[in-house]
Amino acid sequence: MSDFIANLCSKLAAIQPISVIGGNTKAFLGGRLIDEPISMCEHSGILSYEPTELVLTAKSGTTLAEIEHCLKDARQMLPFEPPRFGKQSTIGGVMAAGLSGPRRMHLGSARDCVLGVRLINGLGQHLKFGGEVMKNVAGYDLSRLSVGAYGTLGILTEISVKVLPMPELEQTQRLECSQAEALEMLVRIGRRPYPISAAAWIQGALSVRLSGAASGVASAASAIGGESLPDSETFWAGLRDLSSTEFHEEGRWLWRLSVGPTTPVNAIDAFCFDWAGGQRWVMTDPDDDSPFDIASKCGGHAICFAQNRSAGTGMQPLVPGILSLNQRIKDAMDPHGLINRGRLLGGTH
């Protein structure tokens, strides 16, 4: 165990509150930390990677750039196409925030791709899941529960993820249409065996990315129609990282609503959708939390992505039953409420 990890364990064992961050590129998500954060970037490096096994294990402070550079040499990739909001984005931060990019609709989310983790719980114990099992949380898949928990269930120290080969060819078809027409079109082409890896509507057009063998991509592109997008890699990166201008409007708040892909257009006033309709993006005036009610009525949930939000967690309020379950898991993993206080559910949770 490194001195860095041992120090974190000692602080928690002594019942001292700790807040941790990765590259600090996602500080605008969730509530504001109560305690001065410690950066995990010092704890970095790829621990093991065997391309034939399709598994990579890295320390939580390892940047996505380092991981993807390593994978690129073997023509492999992280299946969930993680967003990064800066060059210092880390694998630990991505997993803690539970973020997934456009390829989620095709190859699954960050939670689907995590195979195992090591973390420090609120008692200062450095645990491995699932090798070392805690009796008081038996039955829970802690590896996956830690994804999207914003570090409140434990300090992630090591993460093992599934990797996959890069496709032989990728091509994006762009078709001008309304949002309603785009959703209808996706239902139709979704019935066909086309190699669709991403589908998004923005700027009055539907973009469908095809990934796979050259012959299959060419055949599907011909059947879907539209025009081929020349710089598709830049387009999908802008959507993934929210760097496109549409996601930035002076004096407005950005919200992400996760809903069923077939949710009617008139239910949500979205300027963009991704994940073939499962992720809708909307803008509101500051302090307007109506997206929570809208998402709830559609059977989904909303998260505020506003950079200048200063109060609250920006997270969908949990119904009593789910809130109780969340608290029980939190109490089992961090009984004194020491880790990342203020990040989720407000207060010290």
Q: How would you portray this structure in words?
A:
- The model is unreliable at 131-138 (pLDDT under 50).
- The strands form 4 sheets. Strands 13-10-12-11-15-16-14-17 form an 8-stranded antiparallel sheet. The protein has a 5-stranded antiparallel sheet with strand order 3-4-8-6-7.
- The protein contains 11 helices and 17 strands.
- It starts with a helix and ends in a 16-residue tail after the last helix.
- Among the domains are: 3-165, Uridine Diphospho-n-acetylenolpyruvylglucosamine Reductase, domain 3 (2-Layer Sandwich), CATH 3.30.465.10; 169-240, Alpha-Beta Plaits.
- The protein is globular and about 65 Å long.
- The protein has helices at 3-13, 64-73, 91-97, 104-107, 110-113, 142-145, 179-189, 214-224, 232-240, 290-297, 320-333; strands at residues 19-21, 37-39, 46-50, 55-59, 76-77, 114-120, 126-129, 155-162, 164-165, 169-176, 196-202, 205-212, 227-228, 253-258, 272-274, 279-284, 301-304.
- It is an alpha+beta fold and 349 residues long.
